[in-house]
Write a structure and sequence with these properties.
This protein starts with 13 loop residues before the first helix and ends in a 12-residue tail after the last strand. Helices cover 17% and strands 17% of the residues. It is α+β, with helices and mostly antiparallel strands and 202 residues long. The strands form 2 sheets. The protein has a 3-stranded antiparallel beta sheet with strand order 3-4-5, with no helix packed on it. A two-stranded antiparallel sheet has the order 1-2.
Length: 202
């Protein structure tokens, strides 16, 4: 964000915090009344701090009770398998699934099973939660040497899933009923335009 929009510049006062965050909310139509975010408006230290906000405990939305729920507040498109999604060439890139950073032993399963593509707009809540009740069995930042889409987006086509900063997480279901194999879900979190940082707890 330093290169793209300077959202990491610290506010100089609580008055500036309130003014800048209010303007940001008005411009992107982010809810202000009632105030549902975890900190008072004057306590955010920068636009980055507010952009990565979370809900206050008494306003946190229900995540659902399904076996699989959306990991984020976003628009989701569903594809029957990797080949179907690849045919649309995400952001103009012809990616290679073997170079995303997914565990090699499960590549065939990931390629042949359903794929969900989620897009977060600038107004959305920018935190990702586990889509299943399970445990993390893989967590690795890939492409750390690359800048995110922030820097390269305006320079033409680039490979967002192979040549971009991304966090790859694999989660496995804890409780399984009916004798079936535990559900395993891979999340590939990509920094989009204006987002050059992905923060996570390893």
């Amino acid at each position: 964000t330093t290169i793209q929009n300077s959202w990491d510049a610290s506010f100089k006062s609580e008055e500036e915090a309130e003014s800048k965050v209010t303007e940001f909310c008005n411009r992107l139509d982010i809810q202000q009344q009632p105030w549902i975010w975890e900190k008072p408006i004057t306590k955010y230290t920068s636009l980055n701090d507010f952009f990565s906000r979370t809900y206050s405990p008494n306003h946190f939305p229900e995540l659902g009770t399904g076996t699989l729920v959306s990991p984020a507040c976003c628009k989701i498109l569903s594809y029957s398998n990797d080949m179907t999604m690849k045919s649309i060439l995400i952001k103009g890139c012809d990616y290679d699934i073997s170079k995303i950073g997914l565990p090699e032993g499960d590549l065939q399963s990931y390629a042949s099973n359903r794929v969900y593509l989620g897009y977060l707009s600038p107004k959305d809540y920018h935190r990702v939660h586990s889509p299943i009740h399970g445990r993390c069995i893989h967590c690795k930042m890939e492409g750390e040497e690359h800048k995110s889409a922030s820097v390269k987006f305006f320079g033409g086509k680039f490979n967002i899933l192979n040549e971009n900063k991304r966090l790859v997480i694999v989660l496995e279901e804890l409780e399984v009923n009916g004798g079936r194999e535990p559900l395993r879900v891979a999340l590939v979190v990509v920094g989009g335009v204006g987002v050059d940082t992905i923060t996570y707890d390893p």
